[in-house]
Specification:
globular, mainly alpha, single chain, 3 strands, three-stranded antiparallel sheet
Length: about 200
């Protein structure tokens, strides 16, 4: 049984991306921290616990012949399942620079004193920012569903989506992110059936 999930729609996502771009022009610690949080939530689909536990040793600089220099982030998810996701270095390097200049911390997204961020403080901060954009229905896990749905719409293979999201098995992924694929499969079967094979079940 597939489940419907709440996501940020295209207009809301455009507003969030515009906010990220605006925050990135600042030199303020809080702005860059919020920008980085939004990038992790919207473009990596991380769980909030994975985000607040992310430390600098979990970040690795790598080189890809096609993509160039990247940061690889190692997340520890449910059941201690480890997965890695990348960002181009220039996508987050200014965020890192401002955060490190402001505070010394083991955490990639620290609180203002350098201690581990609290889930409630991240939620309240992000909720206010999005409310100010006119986005009223805000919760952190909604970003994760948005990420998964975006990958589904982009036509990413369900196995890859499952790996990206760190699901324990592909059935969990399919429960939320296979609706478009199910419609395509149904259409592929039904469109070429001879008319006499179609049974009217309403009689």
């Amino acid at each position: 049984i597939q489940k419907d999930v709440a996501i940020y729609n295209d207009d809301e996502q455009s507003k969030i991306i515009g906010l990220i771009n605006k925050l990135d022009t600042s030199r303020n610690f809080r702005d860059h921290r919020n920008s980085l949080i939004l990038k992790f939530l919207l473009f990596h689909g991380v769980r909030i616990d994975e985000l607040i536990n992310l430390k600098w040793p979990d970040v690795e600089e790598v080189y890809d012949e096609q993509e160039g220099y990247l940061y690889k982030f190692w997340y520890i998810g449910k059941g201690n399942k480890v997965r890695d996701l990348d960002f181009p270095i220039n996508f987050v390097e200014k965020n890192f620079e401002v955060i490190k200049h402001h505070v010394t911390s083991d955490f990639v997204v620290p609180g203002s004193t350098g201690k581990q961020s609290l889930r409630v403080s991240i939620y309240s901060g992000i909720k206010k920012l999005l409310n100010d954009l006119g986005i009223k229905e805000v919760w952190l896990h909604k970003f994760r569903h948005t990420f998964g749905k975006n990958k589904e719409v982009e036509g990413v293979n369900i196995n890859t989506i499952s790996d990206l999201m760190g699901h324990s098995n592909i059935m969990i992924t399919g429960k939320y992110y296979l609706k478009n694929n199910s419609k395509a499969k149904r259409s592929a079967i039904l469109k070429n059936l001879p008319e006499k094979s179609v049974v009217d079940t309403k009689k």
